[in-house]
Amino acid sequence: MIVDLPNTTTAEVSKKLVRLRDDVGAMALSRVLTLVVAVDETDVEAAVETANLASHQHPCRIVVVAAGNRRGTARLDAQIRVGGDAGASEVVVMRLYGALTGHGRSVVTPLLLADSPIVAWWPTWVPPDPSKDPIGEMASRRITDLAASTSKPKPALRRLAASYTPGDTDLAWTRITLWRGLLAAALDQAPYEPVTAVTVTGAPDSASVDLLGAWLGGRLRCPVTLARSRSGTGLIGVRLVRRSGDVDLVRPPDGNVATLSQVGQPERTLSLPHRSDAECLADELRRLDPDEVYADALVRGMQRVTQPRTLTASKAVARGDAPSPKEAEQDIKRLHRAAARVSRAAMESRPEPAAPPSDPDEVKAETRRRLAPDGATTTSSRRRRKGPS
Amino acid sequence: MSPAQVSRQHNPLRDPRDKRLPKIAGPCGLVMFGVTGDLATKKLMPAIYDLANRGLLPPGFSLVGFARRDWSEQDFGKIVHDAVKAHARTPFREEVWRNLAEGFRFVPGTFDDPAAFDLLAETVADLDASRGTGGNHAFYLSIPPGSFSTVCEQLQRSGLSEPSRGSWRRVVIEKPFGHDLASARQLNAVVEGVFPPDAVFRIDHYLGKETVQNLLALRFANQMFEPIWNANYVDHVQITMAEDIGIGGRAGYYDGIGAARDVIQNHLLQLLALTAMEEPVSFRADHLRAEKEKVLSAVRIPKDLARATARGQYAEGWQGGEQVVGYLQEKGVASGSTTETYAAVRLEIDTRRWAGVPFYLRTGKRLGKRVTEIAVVLKRAPHLPFNDTATEELGQNAIVIRVQPDEGVTIRFGSKVPGNQMEVRDVTMDFGYGRAFTESSPEAYERLILDVLLGEPPLFPRHEEVELSWQILDPIEDYWARQSRRLDQYASGGWGPRCADELMARDGREWRIP
């Protein structure tokens, strides 16, 4: 249900919310937090959609503060969305005009849920100092998104580092959680050797590349080199240099499949999907305490990261400093081909395999056939199908 | 400054403060026996896919199916594919599926055929080489307990149960863990004769439910519940697991086992232990287990079992708009069977905390609806400064932990009815786990399978707990076995036999309607 309240006051909005709650049921009673979204008027719909998806995991009240035209008379247009139009949340969109645009906080305050955390999110721009921002100041958690806000992440990261206050976080950091998990899991395995150097390959417009490098450098206490790929390609690969051999995690651009190679283990493909904004936002809402690991990476880790001006990804690959995304792509294809038998067959519509138990003798015969030296346990391509027995 | 040291114990990329970092299991594979079973297709395979989709399975994860079918790998892939498509919680992603499917293998064989296990050993070794599973394998025995010993022996004979240095082998078994103390011990001797106790994971999927873990949080993370969580304030506790279905096609398994062995011995006594136990020193597996064992060993069964137990069988009737047959008319049930489909018992716990507080446990099939809950019913206020008419409709306060469906907590208390008269009536305050947190919380099996692969045992009962719960149930089963009269019949779709209501009435109480 969507209710429009043009030229209104927050008192009206609150009253309407209570009335809607009575009509629709006690839906707002277990909201766990208020998500305040500060956005430009043109980006409202996209932001609401992302927040709605995230709210499926964390039912919340979403308060969108959209600044419109600064000139003209001060005016507040509100819109309330509940039920099917608001995912698992209730959404209040407030469009501010005129002098009111500078006083977003005053319209947000009356709509905050009682006694529950406040999260601020800036989907498309980064305030100069999030914790000093009028809305950021109220929030216990402040989410920025460098990827959507700037194409020059380095100065922006420096600014965020300078103004860092516990509770700050950035979606560029959330996007690399799976990468971090995989790299940590790789170091859980033998050989247990220190990592002496790291190369991270990625686009210069991706803050995630810098943050991953900073995290690795800070935790592993080793120099980190960034090799730049084309803009827009995002994070492509990581190499951890160890004495006995490197750990390479590579995801060719545009793919959702990566390869992981490390000493003593066969090369493997794994799915490393690009995470949607909603997923990342939901992730952020899960933890409402300050992320100290992010702070370490942002504030202290950056100093270990160097980005030679001229080091492009292809040069780094040629020098043998970085894993090659092209090779990874070929490896993925090769490994997929090798295993395609099973997966492709399963995707095709095939007749149901024999449902009733097969005849024990036939099963035993099949066992022996596969055990036989030329039966090749896992690569048998000769298929001997029998109908249901 | 020198680079950070890396060792088996210390991984510099891990930091206890880093709560986002997912726990990804190390390289490993899962060997599943009984891939054609209901559990495997409805729960296990979808759970494995969901784990893969959430990025929690290690690269190179492999799934080996073992069944008495002359299938090829493709046929097995098809079975898993269909199971995943039909039952997975998370959306189907082609790439995730393809990656997962690369690790599928199928071993055709019968349990009594040594060659089949040689083939399995060969397949597992091949996976270690080609997919880097590192010699770490879990064997999921989703098969009738009668086959456990054969399979365990074969695993031992073929060397599959022996991990090489630095790797692990684990075995996962599902309830029932025996049908009485003696058989439980026998079964345990078989399994623990082959695998060390640490490597045996007994799955009670109730313990993987979020609410059960939330029960620990509710009790031990809050200040407001623990002070009243004792005999001073609690009148009695009701633990209910009701099913709306009948035995379905499982007469062969169910007849002769009955509701008490099927549900009370494992699920309900585990819930009782978690509700009644003292605060563990920490949430480490051994500490948690120590407290559960302590409270289970303090459980006392009443002397007069005739007055403290009740059982019954469902009779034909109408349930949920459908006409259903009675238990004795079900296909495959012996005529004149005395297997109960409803069981209720009153237990007491001999500890200072619970002295004099009865714990009523009940379970049944074909009851009013499918629900599992723990209701902690409090005593009445010692003095009510109202006149009688004002509190006529006031019941006892209760804290209800709803385990399924709609996991959450309900608190029941009195509130004034609006109007100019003073009138107090019961109201409820609801906390829905799904409403306050994630809409799609992980399936219990996802959590449990991941815990097996990570080797984290807190949610799995140990053999000692299984033995203790049989010690509680055995005398009751013995008593029932000595009774010759026909079991009370109860109408399908109701809340159980009259004798169960009488059991409560004798104590001046009544069952909640869950």
TrEMBL record, chain B:
Binding-site positions, NADP(+): 68, 175
Domain Glucose-6-phosphate dehydrogenase NAD-binding stretches: 31-214
Catalytic reaction(s) noted: D-glucose 6-phosphate + NADP(+) = 6-phospho-D-glucono-1,5-lactone + NADPH + H(+)
Glucose-6-phosphate dehydrogenase C-terminal domain mapped to chain residues: 216-512
GO MF entry, a single one: NADP binding
Keywords: Carbohydrate metabolism, Glucose metabolism, NADP, Oxidoreductase
Biological process (GO), any one: glucose metabolic process
Record's compositionally biased regions (Polar residues): 1-10
Amino acids binding substrate: 205, 209, 243, 262, 365
Source species, domain of life: Bacteria
Protein's UniProt keywords contain NADP: yes
Top-rank EC class of the record's enzyme: oxidoreductase
Active site, renumbered: 267 (proton acceptor)
Keyword NADP: yes
InterPro entries tied to this protein: G6P_DH, G6P_DH_AS, G6P_DH_C, G6P_DH_NAD-bd, NAD(P)-bd_dom_sf
UniProt feature, compositional bias: Basic and acidic residues: 12-21
Pfam families in the record: G6PD_C, G6PD_N
Pathway annotation from the record: Carbohydrate degradation; pentose phosphate pathway; D-ribulose 5-phosphate from D-glucose 6-phosphate (oxidative stage): step 1/3
Recorded family membership: Belongs to the glucose-6-phosphate dehydrogenase family.
Function comment: Catalyzes the oxidation of glucose 6-phosphate to 6-phosphogluconolactone.
Protein name: Glucose-6-phosphate 1-dehydrogenase
Source species: Nostocoides japonicum T1-X7
Lineage: Bacteria, Bacillati, Actinomycetota, Actinomycetes, Micrococcales
